[in-house]
Amino acid sequence: MENDEARTQNSIFRVPSKGGIGLTLILGVFAIIGLWLLSAPMIMIIILAIVIIIFLRVHAIKEYTYSISLDLPQKQLMLITKSRTSSQTEYFSFNDLWFIYKKRADYFGTKSRVTPQKKDILLIDSKRKTLAFLVPEQDGWTQKLIFDLAKEMAASGIEQKIDKYDKNEIVVTTSSL
Fold first, then answer.
1. Which of 26, 85, 111, 170 is the most buried (most CB within 10 A)?
2. Cβ-based neighbours of 127, under 8 Å, separated by 6 or more
3. CB 146 within 8 A of CB 136
4. What is the structure's pLDDT at 168?
5. What transmembrane ranges does the database entry give (predicted)?
6. Dist. CA 41–CA 176, nearest whole Å
7. Environment class of residue 77 by beta-carbon count within 10 Å: exposed (0-12), middle (13-18) or buried (19+)?
8. What is the dihedral of CA 29, 31, 18, 129, to 10 degrees?
């Protein structure tokens, strides 16, 4: 009974917001002033300024999945993607969505000692595009948050695509709640 009442409300999965670009900008200005005070050649100062501008531009426009909200009464998924300078909100019907939840190996180490570590990833797709590719320890997403989102998506009726011959697939059912 209590679980049914909770299921009629929205489920929000959010990661901490990333900070601004202020620190990078301040460090860049100090680097340029430092080179100028050390009487570095003007071409070095210009090259450093160009590199800093390019870095700040890339840093400012990189998007990440900030929040995924499941609106159960309206059967919609709300996806918020953010960058350092903007935010975009999109809505998708549950009927147009599916997800894949599986283990994927990430490799860590040097050439002589490579250690594969399996992490559970969540891929959310729609008929138009891939909405989110969530990996633990990337963009603030944790293993528990990703698993809870997969469970909630399965419980709300969003289709899970499963390759029955892939041993890395993880079947998420409502009984795993």
1. 170
2. 96
3. yes
4. 65
5. 20-37, 43-60
6. 64
7. buried
8. 90
